[in-house]
């Protein structure tokens, strides 16, 4: 599908563009629908954290219905990260900027988080699976009280608006979904993801809900899992967690 084949609804204030998409799906929407908002009053981040969503930044969610066989869905966060990375790269005036992907799907500009992505899913009344890819990008501002380094497109000298960045995102998302081919072509997506990844080969800590492990970030596999080499030399595959560099 090409970028123009996706529908788009632009809203003003919403709780969350992800919620809007999930509600559309429950009401029978066929999917391939982008919902954007000027502001979110209840923006959600990973692990139930809030996502501060003042006007000026990009809040965009893509609703897909049954985008791939269930076993391939775990790699969709990598597709989303590549798409957001591509859109931001296009907006940056300085081609030398360091724009990296931090596993699984944060995008970092010069080491500061410039984007977060939240995938959510649900089963619609006819039994099919709705998947929502929610993307937030710091265009004009970053949360003031963040516990981590942040970055914005404005501070990087990019004169792009949230609307213009959304147009770039539509194109890069369509391109990356087509490349991925419903998971059938994951090897190409994985290679590209690794090209932009930060921390591969480095000592890291991965925080998971009930544990935290240290080791060397060796690789990612075709399902998007991080392969960690533990101090005893054994390899552990990790499906989800927050990554920190030591
Ligand atoms: O914690 C993260 O890094 C993920 C943040 C995801 C934020 C986006 S903004 C658009 C969409 N709607 C939401 O409520 N969350 C996502």
Automatic annotation (TrEMBL):
It is an enzyme of class 6 (ligase). It catalyses: biotin + L-lysyl-[protein] + ATP = N(6)-biotinyl-L-lysyl-[protein] + AMP + diphosphate + H(+). Keywords: ATP-binding, Biotin, Ligase, Nucleotide-binding. One of its GO terms (molecular function) is biotin--[biotin carboxyl-carrier protein] ligase activity. GO terms for cellular component: cytoplasm. CDD domains: BPL. It comes from the Bacteria. Its EC number is 6.3.4.15. Residues 4-181 form the BPL/LPL catalytic domain. Pfam families: BPL_C (PF02237), BPL_LplA_LipB (PF03099). Signal peptide: none annotated. InterPro entries: aa-tRNA-synth_II/BPL/LPL (IPR045864), Biotin_CoA_COase_ligase (IPR004408), BPL_C (IPR003142), BPL_LPL_catalytic (IPR004143), Transcriptional_repressor_C (IPR008988). PANTHER family: BIOTIN PROTEIN LIGASE (PTHR12835), BIOTIN--PROTEIN LIGASE (PTHR12835:SF5). This is biotin--[biotin carboxyl-carrier protein] ligase. It comes from Flavimaribacter sediminis.
């Amino acid at each position: 599908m090409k970028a123009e084949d996706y529908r788009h609804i632009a809203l003003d204030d919403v709780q969350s563009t992800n919620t809007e998409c999930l509600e559309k799906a429950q009401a029978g929407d066929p999917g391939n629908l982008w919902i954007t908002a000027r502001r979110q009053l209840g923006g959600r981040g990973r692990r139930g954290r809030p996502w501060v969503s003042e006007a000026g930044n990009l809040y965009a969610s893509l609703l897909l219905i049954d985008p791939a066989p269930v076993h391939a869905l775990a790699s969709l966060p990598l597709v989303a990260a590549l798409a957001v990375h591509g859109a931001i790269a296009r907006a940056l005036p300085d081609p030398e900027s360091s724009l990296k992907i931090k596993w699984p799907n944060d995008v970092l500009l010069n080491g500061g988080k410039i984007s977060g992505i939240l995938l959510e899913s649900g089963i619609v009344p006819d039994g099919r699976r709705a998947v929502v890819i929610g993307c937030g990008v710091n265009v004009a501002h970053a949360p003031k009280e963040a516990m981590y380094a942040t970055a914005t497109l404005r501070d990087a000298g990019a004169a792009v608006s949230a609307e213009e960045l959304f147009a770039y995102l539509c194109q890069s998302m369509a391109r990356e979904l087509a490349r991925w081919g419903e998971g059938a072509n994951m090897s190409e997506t994985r290679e590209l993801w690794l090209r932009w990844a930060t921390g591969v080969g480095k000592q890291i800590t991965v925080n998971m809900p009930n544990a935290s492990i240290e080791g060397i970030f060796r690789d990612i596999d075709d399902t998007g899992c991080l392969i960690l080499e533990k101090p005893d030399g054994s390899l552990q595959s990790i499906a989800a967690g927050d990554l920190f560099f030591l």
